Amino acid sequence: MSRDQQTALPSHGDATAPVEAADVQFRVFRRDDERKAFRLERVFWELLEQAASAKGQKLRDVVFSIIDQEPDAKNLASSLRTAAAKWANDRHAALAESAGTQSGIAVFHACPSPGIIIGEDRRIVAFNIAMQTFIAARRPHALRSDMVDARFAFELPVAQIIKFLVEAPGKFMECGFRITLGDEALTGRCRVCLYRDGKPGTRQLGAFIVT
Asked: Looking at the structure, do residues 179 and 135 belong to the same domain, yes or no?
């Protein structure tokens, strides 16, 4: 055990221990001449250790970072518990979003309908193989790299489409589109869904050509 961190179980006679000793750990951390000691449930120490590992830091560094952020806190142990719970919640949300995004991308690329993902700034984020085939059938000499310079526009303002879809979860809408590659343009109808929801500016639309 390093000098910076010591671990011990509380004695049976310690009246401050709210739960069984096996579930609680008492740890001491030192930084220069500063010494801090905390008694936390084992699960919170494990979460803080995971947070430290994810940041490439030592547990001591994470603990003192939390302390430095709340120098006037009257209950630093509670601050540590809150930080551990917040990290776990943020981690869970990130994993859920990542899993959902990866599944969505797989479905998008597997879809046989020509599809394209558009950001709120109207930039093309991605297109599937079916879209490349759709373009090639109508513009035989088009290269895949040409899609990078393609411009996709809906007949309705993007903000209007997003507003409708955000207010109608699970719905889609049909509208006209225009794809411009150089001096050539392709038009038709597409079905649009909210591919990715989130904060304003980060939402994305998925459009699939029907005609």
From this structure: yes
